[in-house]
Amino acid sequence: MVTYLLCLVLFSVGLYCVVRKRNIIKIIIGIGIMEYAINLFFILIGYRSNGRAPIFADDQAVVNMVDPLPQAMALTAIVISLAVTMMLVALAIRIYEKYGTFDITKINRLKG
Amino acid sequence: MLEIDLLLLFMIASAIIAVQVKDLLSSVIAVGAVGIGLSMSFLIMKAPDLAIMQLVVEVLSLIILIRATIRKDLPFSASGRWAFNTFSMILFLAVFLVFAYFSFSDMHRFGAPLMKVSQEYLGEAMAKTGAHNVIAAITLKYRSIDTLGEVAALFAAVVGVLAIARKVSRPGGIRK
Hints:
The complex is a heterodimer of chains A (112) and B (176).
Chain A lengths: L1 H19 L3 H22 L22 H32 L13
Helix pairs in contact in A: 1-2, 2-3
Chain B lengths: L1 H19 L3 H21 L3 H22 L12 H23 L12 H13 L4 H9 L1 H22 L11
Helix pairs in contact in B: 1-2, 2-3, 5-6, 6-7
């Protein structure tokens, strides 16, 4: 319960960063923090007390495994988050080349 | 679980530093600390595949972010209704967390997952797919279409980055 709430506090820090900051790089960082929190929340949902990693072994019977399905989902989400970060950074670099700033309040005129 | 709570506190502290510090390079490094903490907490939560993947992705995204921030100054603008905006944002987040507290009390307890679908996977993954690692069995066998979609999204992102970062437009283009 406390763990869930702490994970959501981490999400809130990212949300605050996205909504409140004016620098594009800071906004990208906030989106990254939100992605971290969501991935961690998936794993927290699937955790079982005193569980073991969902990997079978030949010489021993592994019981009490944690839930493997959220882990498989989060594995996909992590790779997609890398692609999202890559694309956002490419957009930010282009905006810097065009306007000479990262400040979103100064990027308000058409230019080109 | 005391360890995961401590790691989460460390990650929250690093995230707040990353949000509030003015130097962009320091901010990116603090985000790297959050990512490493996330990798360690994956390891504690018994997800070794995710820990390895998170470490690799963290290093790559750190390199990409440093490429974006290096040798660029940050003109910090603090105009506008700073106090009002910050206060309303924090109020909204507090309401959000209170609602989350009440909805979490309806969820299943931490450490006792539901596992309706996963019980079947755990029972027959070894016999049906022959994979020792259940996560590999799920991503590559049971839900392989999902993995195909992931690869398609990654390819689309690479194409998008190439289109955005292209320096020269076509010879018969509209401008330049």
